[in-house]
Amino acid sequence: MDRTLQWRFIGLDNFLRLFGVSSRDPFVPRIIRNTVIYVAGTLPLTIFGGLFLSILSMRLRRGMGLFFRSIFFIPRAIPPVVWGFLWAWSFEGTRYGLFNGIRSMLGLPVIHWLIKYPMVIVILANGFLGISLSMLVFSSAIASIPTDLTRAAEIDGATRWQTTRYIIIPLLKWPILTMTAWHLMSFVNSYVYIMLITGGGPYYRTEVWSLYAYHTAFNRYRYGYGASLTTILIVVNIVLLLVVLRTFGLRRMIGRGKIEV
Amino acid sequence: MTKKTGAAFPYVLLVLVAAPFITMYVGFFLRAFGEGPQLGIFPERFGLSNFSFLWEPITWGLAETTIWVALANTILFASVSGAVVTVVCMLAGYAVSRIEFKGKNTFLVLQLFLHAVPGQILLIAIFFLLYYLHLLHKIPGIALARASLEIPLGVWMTKGFFDAIPWDVERAAMIDGCTRLQVWYKIFLPLVKPGVAAVFIWGFLFAWHDFIYVYTLLPGTAKLMSTLIQSLLATEVIDYGYLAAMSLLYMLPPLTLFVLLQRALLKVPIFGGKGI
Q1: Residues of B in contact with A160 (CB under 8 A)
Q2: What is the pLDDT of residue A250?
Q3: Which of A113, A236, B69, B146 is the S-S candidate for A91 at Cβ 3.0 to 4.6 Å?
Q4: Strand partners, B46
C-alpha cells in the first residue's frame, strides 16, 4: 500500500524484500546493527546506572537523597518534546548550544556532538529516561529491606561495599529482573526520543528498527512495507513477552489483586 | 580512608553524575528568562521578551497560530482522552472486580499483554483504523485512539480500587433493590472518588504529554502544544529562548495538577504509561 491508500494484494513481497530474497533492502543490515548497539547500550546503562544511583542516594541523609532522586526523576515528569528539546539544545553543534557555549567560554573549540557521537547522545538520553524509573523502583526496594539485616552485617564487621554486595544486591534480585524485562521491551520499541533528537541521522547512523518502520510508513508513504517491518517487531515482542512470562510465572501475575510497577 | 572522606564519597559521586543534568536544567531555566545571545549558562541580561508568544501570534514558515488556540486544542484533546479512559476503566474495573463471567482471566491476561506492547509501534494500524472510521485529522478521534492505549493498565488499576471495597456494602444495596448499574453509580463511584480523580488525571497527563500520536495523526495547522514546539524546533532558525519559554508554559499545567492532587495520585502507578 502506498500514498494512494489503495489496497492491493502482493503476497509476501514485502517480507521477501525484508529478508533480502528479492530486490534487497540495502538498509536492513545497518538498521539491525544500530538496534543491537542501541539496546546493548541503553539496557545496562538503565539497570546498572539505576542500581548505582539508588544505592548511593539511599546512603545519604533523607533530604539529600530525595534531592538527588528528584533530579534524576525529572526526565519522566517532563513531556517527551521538552526532553528532546533539552538534549537537542544542550548538544547543539554551534556556540549557541549549552555545552558548546560552556566550552567556548573556556576557550575550547566547539564539538559537533550530534554529528560525531550521535549514538552516544541518543543512548544517554534514553538511558537516563530508563534510569528515572529503575532508580525509583530500586530505591523503594532498598527502603523496604529490614534494617536488622544491614545492622547485623555491620556488627559482624562487614564494610559498606560488602553490605551492598552481599546483602542489598541479592535482595534486589526480583526488582532487577522485572526492570530488565520491562526496559528490554521498551527499548526495542522506542523511537520517539531518537526521532526528536537526531531524527535517525546523520545518514541512518541512529536509525533503529522501529524508527525505520515509522519513517518508511509516514515519511516515504510506503505503509505496506512499514507494516511488515512493524510485524517483525511485534513478533519479537511477543517472543520476549513469552520468555518474560515464563521466567516470572504467569500465575503469580494473575493472582495478584493489584498491579504494582 | 578516614571516616570523613568515607561519608563524603557518595556525595562526590552523585554530584559528578548529576552535574551535567543540573547544568542542563538550570541553563534551560535561565535561557527562558534571558534576553540576547546566550553563551554557556548565563544570558546577557534577564527579561521577559521570550514570553512574547503570549500576546503575539506565533509563526513558523508560512504558517501562523496563537498560543491560545494551541492551548485550547491541547486541553480539548487531553480532557476527551481522560474522560474516555475514566468512564471505560471505571465500568470495566467494576465488572472484572465483581462479576464472574466466562473468559475473565483470559481477558485480564490479554490486558497485560496489550499493556506490555508499547503503543507507538501500533501507529500504522491506528492510522488506517482512524482513516476507515473517518476520524483521522480530528482531535476527538485521535483522543479516542490515545485513550484506548491507557485502558489496559487502567482496568487493572480500577480493579484494585474496587477490590478494596467490602462485599457487604454491595449486598446491602442489592437487597434494597438496586440494579448492577445503580450499585456502580450510587454506591461505588462515591466510595472510590479519589480513584476516579486519579484515573482521570492519569489519562489527562499522558494525553497532555503525548507527542507521537498527535504528530503523526494530526498533521497540518491544528497544532497542539507538543507539535507546536516540535515544528518550531524543526525550522531553520531556532530561537532557543523562545522555545524554552514555551516549554515552561507547556509544563506548567501538569506540574500544577500534580502538586495539587499529589495525595490522590500517590495511589496510582504514574509511570506505566504508553508512549513514554
Answers
A1: 6
A2: 54
A3: A113
A4: B34
Amino acid present at A173: K
Domain that holds residue A116: 32-207
The reported pLDDT for the residue numbered A45 is 93
**B-contacting residues of A 125-184, CB under 8 Å?**
128-129, 132-133, 136, 160
| Nearest in space to B115 (alpha carbons), one of A189, A248, A118, A125 | A189
Q: What is the CATH number of the domain that holds A169?
A: 1.10.3720.10
Residue range B74-233+257-265, CATH number: 1.10.3720.10
Please state the domain count of chain A: 1
- Report the distance separating Cα B123 and Cα B207, nearest Å: 15
- The secondary structure of residue A219, as a DSSP letter, is T
**Is the CB of residue A80 less than 8 Å away from at least one CB of chain B?**
yes
pLDDT of residue B81: 92
Does residue A38 sit within a domain? yes
Question: How far B157 CA sits from the closest chain A CA (Å)?
Answer: 7
Per-residue model confidence as pLDDT tens digits over A10-39: 767 777 777 766 667 778 888 889 999 999
Task: Kindly tell me if the per-residue pLDDT of A41 is higher than 50.
Answer: yes
Domain assignment of residue A23, yes or no: no
**Confidence grade of residue B89 (pLDDT, cut at 50, 70, 90):** very high
